[in-house]
Amino acid sequence: MNTFLQWLSQPWPWYVAGPIIGLTVPALLILGNKTFGISSSLRHICAACVPAGIPFFSYNWRKETWNLLFVLGVGIGGFLATNFLANPDTIVISEATQRDLAALGITDYSDLMPSQIFSWENLFTGKGLLFFVLGGFLVGFGTRYAGGCTSGHAIMGISSLQWPSVIATIFFMVGGFLMTHVLLEPLMKLVGF
Amino acid sequence: MSKVAVKNTGVEDPNCVAPNLQQNHDKGLELLKYLILGTLFGIVFVKAEIISWFRIQEMFRLQSFHMYGVIGSAVVTGMISVQLIKRLNIKTIHGETILIPDKVFKKGQVIGGFIFGLGWAITGACPGPLFAQIGSGYTVVLVTLISALAGTWVYGKFADKLPN
């Protein structure tokens, strides 16, 4: 049992993780005719908590409780994996990325997330404004405007051969490349890195 | 192809990408299966380090194959599964015909997709990993999640005024 847990605790390679994620598509279809999509949960939470009479949030969100339970499960899964199946070794990040990020002032590679960014001390600073407030807002606004995120478009949409999802995925990548290669450095300088 | 019983149907609301087309809705404990499926999903997110801000940076800097392998093999697996469901006319466990709604092209997929991409490279997380990061103990990501909810709400508020 211990050896099994140790084996599970190593980082899982892409060819294990990718197919399991892909199988979520048929699993949801077969379990209950559900289309895979995670960003919809954000809409359902808005509809449940602050609908404010807006037509976009006026629908029966209770019918979509499954989606909210799914994302609750994602959080629980995160808790279980981190607390019971944690990788004993530090994350291995490509040396080229470490070099690029060191130039931006990110030097701590001991955890899955850079502690220099993702800490509560940064909350009321420019760093928090950029990485939590602005970043989160763009993710929420953009996914809803696009009608989906990586799960709904890139995985579910392309799996079912829908060309609008291919377009959406291309523009996810365009935005990501532009931010990473052009905007991130000046923005990080601006907030004090 | 003549045996294809699964039709792609239009949905009432094209903005909803994860529509629920089940006729007899799951209730009570039946809903637990989605919690369990989500839990497995969250474990994979952490174990394959998909929740890592570093892995997303590697992806956008083209310095590692990992994320491309994950997303690519997920798409291939999903594609094969959807084809099998269609060709073998597989039904849901409740015997319903499986329906996959057509996505309608709109400008939002370009503009919104681009905006999401900008955010993805900052937060290092698309919506799924946000939940897994919080569960993993990166509690400050709760702020990111609240901000993502605010972004979703602002989109909903101005949805009819934006080009689409």
Structural commentary:
The complex is a heterodimer of chains A (about 190) and B (about 160). Chain A has helices at about 1-10, 15-30, 40-50, 65-85, 95-105, 125-145, 150-160, 165-190. Chain A has a domain at about 1-90. The N and C termini of chain A lie far apart (about 45 Å). The radius of gyration of chain A is 19 Å and the shape is globular. In chain A, helix 3 (about 40-50) packs across helix 4 (about 65-85). Chain A has 8 helices and no strands. Chain A has about 190 residues and is an all-alpha fold. Chain B is mainly α and about 160 residues long. Helix content of chain B is about 55%, strand content about 0%. Chain B has helices at about 30-45, 55-60, 65-85, 110-125, 125-135, 140-160. The longest helix of chain B is centred in the middle third of the chain and has 22 residues, at about 65-85. The radius of gyration of chain B is 18 Å and the shape is globular. The model of chain B is unreliable at about 1-10 (pLDDT under 50).
List keywords for this structure.
heterodimer; A: 193 residues; mainly alpha; 8 helices; globular; B: 164 residues; 6 helices; disordered N terminus; YeeE/YedE family protein (chain A)
Characterize this entry briefly.
By secondary structure, chain A is mostly helical. Chain A has helices spanning 2-9, 14-32, 40-49, 65-84, 95-103, 126-146, 150-159, 163-190.
